[in-house]
Amino acid sequence: KAADSIRKYRNIPGLVYAVFTTDAIIDTGASGVKKMRVKDPICWQNRFQIGGTTTTFTSYLAARMVQEGKISWNTSIIKIFPELDGKTMKIYHRITLQQLLSQQAGLPPYEEYKYWRDIHSLPGTATQQRALFVAMMLKRKPALIIDSSQSVYSVAGTAIAAAMLERVS
């Protein structure tokens, strides 16, 4: 009941939770639906991608890695993935870690579940799949940005930032 009341208060369609101590799992469960206005209940076995569900955590890790000198906010995607130079849309070559995490990279939103099936069908290890995802996204047409001070939320942008952090770590 507590998780469901929090979910409703925060206007979140669905969540999966675990309550634990350092040595025991006290409770686990799921509440809500997979998508707003769709009666498809969420369940414990549903998968969640790194993007939007961990944007805050990804930003925190980025800040720590910037502080440690492993990467800078102005590091471009192409600097971390030089093998993509000439194989992706040039408009993305200057996109920085900061732009990705501030949702100002112009990437398509990539929010619907049907798009995430693309990731699961990519070959290789999880790390290799993320690198392939970066290449796949940087070949796609960008979202229309009329005012560069406006944010265009993109789960893909956060996922690409996470792949950059993984590569430099």
Question: What is this structure, in a nutshell?
Answer:
The protein has eight helices and two strands.
Number of continuous helical runs: 8
Order of helices and strands: HEEHHHHHHH
β-strand number: 2
Please give the radius of gyration in angstroms. 18 Å
Rounded average pLDDT: 84
Measured between the Cα atoms of the first and last residue, the distance is 40 Å
Tell me what you see in this structure:
It is globular, with a radius of gyration of 18 Å. With 169 residues, the protein is mainly alpha-helical. The protein has helices spanning 2-9, 50-53, 55-67, 77-80, 97-101, 113-120, 126-137, 155-168; strands spanning 14-20, 25-32. It has a two-stranded antiparallel sheet. It starts with a helix and ends with a helix. It is built from 8 helices and 2 strands. The mean pLDDT is 84. Helix 7 (126-137) packs across helix 8.
Topology:
Blueprint: H1 2-9, E1 14-20, E2 25-32, H2 50-53, H3 55-67, H4 77-80, H5 97-101, H6 113-120, H7 126-137, H8 155-168
Antiparallel strand pairs: 1-2
Helix pairs in contact: 3-8, 7-8
